[in-house]
Structures are given as C-alpha cells and as structure tokens.
Request: fold
Amino acid sequence: DSCLENGLPIQEPQLNTTSMRLSLNTPLQAGESVNIHLSYQVKLPSQAGVLSFGSSQVNLSGWVMVIVPFLEGTGWLQHPPGTVGEYQVNELADYDVRFTVVNPPEGLIVAASAPQFDDADGYHFVAKNVRNLTLSASPDYEILESSVGSIRIRAYVFPEHLEAGFAALEATSKSVELFSSIYGTYERPSLSLVESTFADGIEFDGLFYLGQEYFAAYKSGTRNYLTALSAHETAHQWWYAMTSSDQALEPWLDEALCTFSERLFYESVHPEDVEWWLQTRIQIYTPQGAVNSSIYDFSAFRPYVNAVYLRGAEFLGDLRDKMESSAFEAFLQDYFSTLNSKSEKDQLGLATAETFWQVLANHYEGDLKDLRSEYFK
Reply:
C-alpha cells in the first residue's frame, strides 16, 4: 500500500524483483517535496543469507526500502544484481526503527548496526546519517564486548566458537583504532561483528558478517582468514559506510582499499605476519585481470576477487612504493576527507576513479602511466 501525505495523485506502483517505481501524475516542481508512506511485507527466504530466516539465525539486511540516489547527468543510480559482488548504492539517511518480535524464543538476542534504546514494547533503534540499518537475531548468540575510546564494539558469535570470537573481536578493535589514525575518525557510536550461517563476509553500515567457516577453522594466533577478514570488513566502515562508491561499476574503489587495509593492519599490528599475508592472501592465487573491472565482467567469484581485490591491493602497494609511505598516507587521509565532506553536502559522497586520481595528483606529480597500464584497462 502507498499514499502521499499531501494528497498528490499517484499511479499504480510498479514492483519487480529488486525495486519499485512510484510515479506521480503531477511532477514535483523544483524545491517541492513529498512524504511517502509505504506499508509492505517482506517474506524471508528460509535459507542462509543476508536477508533470511533459518533455524539458528534471522538476518534483516536490506529489508527496508530506500530511495535510489539520483545523480545530475546520470539519472537514477540503479543497477541489476550481478553474479558476483554488490550492486546497490545507498545515500546517507536517518533511521528510527521500532521492532517487535511476536512469540520470541527464550533468550533471543538482537544484534544491530546501531545502539538500542529502552522500549517497553520491543526493540528501538535510532541511527542518523548512515547507509542502512541492519539487524540479526538468534537465541544462540554469545555477546563479546570491547571498546575503542567511546566506540562500543560487540561480537555476536555462536557458543562453540568463543575463542575464535575473542580473536575476531580483538582484530576488529585494533583495526578501528588503526584505521581511525590512518584514514580519519570513525564516526559511528558502535560496530557489531556477527558470525553468520552463510559463507564469506559482507559489510553494512555499523555491522558486518563473517562466515562461520572462518570461526570453525580458527586454531590460534593471527595467521588466519578470520583475523585478515575482520580487518577487511572493518575497513569497509571507511570505504563503504562513511564514504561510498558505485559498487557495481567501480568496485575496486572500496574492495581494493579494504584488501590493502589488511596489509596495513598486519604491518602495524602484527609485522611478523606480513610475509604470511602476502603469500597466503595474494601471491598464492597469482592474480590476473583489470583492477577497474565491473561486477558484470565476471561469472565466477574467484576471478572477480583476483582482479578487483588482490590486483587492487598489489596496485596500491606499488603506488606506495612509488610515492613513499608518508606521501601515500597523506593521500589516503586527504582522499577520505574529500569524500567525507562530499557526504555531508549531498548525502552520497560518491567516490569515483576521477576523484581518486585528482586527489592523488595533489600528492604525487610523478609519471603513473606504466602503473596504470599494468593494472587498469
């Protein structure tokens, strides 16, 4: 059901698999606005995923309808799903969510991407200036908690993986501390890490999932994918949440930086493990492909990761070698600051390759033709 608060006539909504189009009979004039009220049901698939209902976990990610960003000269920034990667671009917005569970199981715990407020009738979450609001519920979660300054960091893990949960929590906390110093201040009050029943990992604003296979494989130490990917997904809070990019057409702008952030994490926090990371995360795959590929260039996950993530991290490493570390770090800070200020102005802060190269030119005047021809199409 849909209606407009000021009574403007509206055409019948057009709903397809991933989007709904609402058309006004009378177009809005410049400077005019309208309030849209939607009432709808979401049927959760009974399979593991970011939007799913399972025996041990319910995930509500991408469950709230959002307005597609509109770019002057481009139009609506909407893409179809691909075989690999993410395809949606979300503007910053405010969320005030009241969440009620009917007949909840005993001991239900709700993990959230925003702090919870007391509410006698259920759960209440308020988040301002964020890309999305994400919830995950389970009666089986154990909560592990840490903090970095005033930032509350929580890991929601299954009881059989407590040791691995503490390791992931520690890596996440140290990553928040490190990336705050390298890139810029983390502007959210909290960060949640959720062990997922679906494979791999994926980021949302203020929350990320890590697959239970990484927790199950954990033995000890930091030479493992659980630690590396905790750093990777934490970095997305800078290169997805606080700033944004077109994840379908230019996924390297967040994935390459987040993969290289793993290297920065190991260099700073566990320097004895850097060679292990280079060999196990990068070199073993002998990555090929153009860094600036889109998600639609691939039909399988491994070639996509090799080109965009791994070759992207190699490019950034070679770029740092050309620039020297101090100039490279100044570039990253300037790049993040530039995008973050854009976010404040237009609620999108969209990173583009053009912005990347423009900011880089302010910190390095050398010739990058060979590097660009080696890594980019």
Summary: The two ends are 46 Å apart (CA to CA).
